[in-house]
Write a structure and sequence with these properties.
17% of the residues lie in helices and 34% in strands. A hairpin with a 2-residue loop joins strand 8 and strand 9. The chain is elongated and about 60 Å long.
Length: 303
Amino acid sequence: ATARKGGGVREMASGLVVSGIAVPRTATAARPARRAASPSPSKASIGIGRRVKRNPAHPTTVARAVEQASGASTSDPVDCLPALPDDSLPDVVVQFLRREGRHAVFSATKVGVVEVNEVEGGRSLRAYMSLPASQYSTLDGERVERVGDDTFVCTLGAFDFLGFRLQPVLTARVDVRPDGQGCVIRVVSAEIHGSGVVESVNGMFEIDSVNRVGWNERCNPGTGQCEIASETKVTVYLLVPRWFPFTVKATERTGNFVVSQVVNQVVPRFLSQLVTDYEAWAAGDESREAKGADLFAVDLETK
């Protein structure tokens, strides 16, 4: 795992395995138990009624040292994130993997942490994290649209994929946890816009994307200095069309690169805009208007 700090956001990438709506634990969520790696799901490995489990990242891939007032201790930034009730693959993905054809899978995980100072004389970060989804800012007024109290449509920037120009559009739902524990943002549907050939792929892929957002006071307890953390996991399952001129291996190699670039760029931007939104709200701004832009702009040339 690698870690770097830039613009106030510390990032950790945990290797190849979308984010961005608004807010979002003080209570520590238990990390998943370490399990042996299993092969990529295939038609042969998925029986009727059998639950397919994700392979969680090894806990040490996101471990880091955190300075506390009482001294240094080793802690995991995902400890403060709300737990997922179930780590099984969504039913729609299980059904998709049973379909005949050439299956490709590409994915990425990104963990980010940003420090935030509670606004003196203003509203607390706990209160901010307790806001209902209906009071969330979209963060990006151009690329994120509210379509319900807890549902948002996110339009990513267009990019080239194996010679095709495409633009993903994701519908995400927010599950706000009680007592300011954070939220879970999950993609519930996705489609691709582009040429006729590109849009013919709609119905031939599924996306399993989860962004957990939480917070804690462990930086400097009692001083108003806190952290907001985010873990985004994105996995794309593709049924490679017969006419597609590339092998499954080549498709996965390029897909892993693209998904990794998306989360590596979006997660730090999401956290920075989240801090800006909190500071405005804590100071008394009730408009909930988006304060940022280009949340989902993607530059595949960035290394």
